[in-house]
Amino acid sequence: MSRPVSISTSGASVSGVVPLCYFISPFSVSVNTVVTGSVVYTLQYTSDNPQASTFDPTTANWKSHPLMTSSTVSDFVEFTTPVTAVRLNQASGGGSIAAKVIQAGL
After folding, report:
1. From the first residue on, what is the mean pLDDT of each consecutive set of 10 residues in the chain (106 residues)?
2. N or C: which end of the chain has fewer CB within 10 A?
3. Whole-angstrom Cα distance, residue 1 to residue 78?
């Protein structure tokens, strides 16, 4: 990822998956979310390989970021421990979320 990657949701939905390079050391990824309207969302991450031919985002082993679980506001978090991908999961609300994902070192 050589520049910020944008992902978004609108209404109850899941964003696209942003693959990350876990070989970069030190690992540093930031996610900045901007909420519009009323939403409840979670930033999710996985260690499954999103590049594998068998990867299915609907059955991947997603975990919730502890600082962005059932969040209702715009926020910013960082990952310093390697993960392979991130996504947004908007559980409810008629609003939307826009996020920028930036990985250092690329």
Report:
1. 87 97 95 98 98 96 97 97 98 96 90
2. C
3. 16
CA angle (66 as vertex; 64, 67 as ends), nearest 5: 120
The torsion region of residue 47 among left (phi > 0), alpha (psi -120 to 50) and beta comes to alpha
0.85 cut: is pTM over it?
yes
Distance CA 61, CA 88 (A): 14
d(CA 106, CA 88): 22
Give CA–CA dist 38/60, Å, rounded.
27
Q: How far apart are CA 9 and CA 23, in angstroms?
A: 28
